[in-house]
Amino acid sequence: MDEEQKDATPRQKSSRDPDELRRRLEAWFTAKVGAAAAPRVGAVSSPSTNGMSSETLLFDASWQEQGGPCSGSFVARLEPETSDVPVFPTYDMESQFRILEVVGRHSDVPVPRVRWLENDPQALGARFFVMDRVEGRVPPDVMPYTMESWLLDADPEQRRHLQDSTVAVLASLHSIPVAGADVGFLEFDLPGATPLRRHVENQRRYFYDFVQEGRPFPVIDKAFAWLEEHWPEDEGESVISWGDSRIGNVMYDGFDPVAVLDWEMAAIAPREVDIAWMIFIHIFFQDITERAGLPGLPDFMLRGPVTEEYERRSGYRPRNMDFFEMYAALRHAIVMARVFARSVHFDGAEWPDEPETVIYHRDVMIDMLGGKFRSRDAVG
């Protein structure tokens, strides 16, 4: 296991000063509610155990309304500074705001109430939106929930309840009629005859035009070639895809979802894009955990139970899962390469002679390219 994986110290994510952000946020809030409301914004903080893309600010605010005191707890999502080596090439805050509105209006998926969208970067130095803060607990990324967490300490029935209730979130999201929900803004304006073709083309450009920077990553090249060789004859229905569908982006009350977060990867895509991502991200954490000599959660998020529960909730049987799990592994590999570039920027890390070794699940991908799919093998 690499030293970076052993180190539980949260990585720096931003060069912005929190005190300056608080002052500017209070000035912006004053413009929203009026100086007569005597608004005040408290200390600004950021979550430390999850998230490496958009910048997340947590803050409390108080003001006067109709002669009485009001207060609230809020979350602001900011596009990152371009100088901070952002994970993604663009951050469309308006699209994230709109998808939260759509999902909240058209389904029972628990999403935070969105309050304000600010497209003028002058206020905080970046575009952002504000939503209500929801109380709950999140399975952590640092340290991975498979190593130490409240989920690891739960009993098997509680973990299965969390798994099934999270799969139910996907089934509910995917039930939203695309045609009637005004979600054309989620379509990629790229070459390709189908949403899946355009989705993969977006990933191809993300890697080769933005992430690679001339470094060799043979396992990513091979994975793109594998997808072309194994492209499904029937891609299935395309739906609203959450994109980053993993338990680390869900807040839970006990073991029930109360807030589904992080929608910057949302798109129009087949159902299996979300289902496979949810399965594979657990494979990623489980593999890291086993390499550290720990048991982890080997019976969690297996393909069989996940797809069976999805079918029970939706009436749709997921298919071509080898293809979509490979696609999930490829997408995550690209993100891992970019995340390491952030470590170079913030932490002084150096690229190794073999750059693809920064992809922690490279050996998993090599197994998959050879026909060994761990989620499939685990269920026989």
Describe this structure in words.
It is built from twelve helices and nine strands. The chain is α+β, with helices and mostly antiparallel strands and 380 residues long. The longest helix has 27 residues, at 321-347. The chain is globular, with a radius of gyration of 21 Å. Helix 5 crosses helix 9 and helix 8 (271-291) crosses helix 10 (321-347). The chain has helices spanning 3-6, 18-33, 93-106, 150-153, 156-174, 195-211, 218-229, 271-291, 303-314, 321-347, 362-369, 374-378, and strands at 40-41, 55-65, 68-78, 114-118, 128-132, 238-241, 250-253, 256-260, 267-270.
Tally of domains: 2
- In what order do the strands lie side by side in the largest sheet? 1-2-3-5-4
Number of strands: 9
Write the element-wise H/E pattern from the N-terminal end onward. Answer: HHEEEHEEHHHHEEEEHHHHH
* Named CATH architecture of the largest domain: Alpha-Beta Complex
Reconstruct the topology from this structure.
Elements: H1 3-6, H2 18-33, E1 40-41, E2 55-65, E3 68-78, H3 93-106, E4 114-118, E5 128-132, H4 150-153, H5 156-174, H6 195-211, H7 218-229, E6 238-241, E7 250-253, E8 256-260, E9 267-270, H8 271-291, H9 303-314, H10 321-347, H11 362-369, H12 374-378
Antiparallel strand pairs: 1-2, 2-3, 3-5, 4-5, 6-9, 7-8
Helix pairs in contact: 5-9, 6-10, 7-10, 7-11, 8-10, 10-11
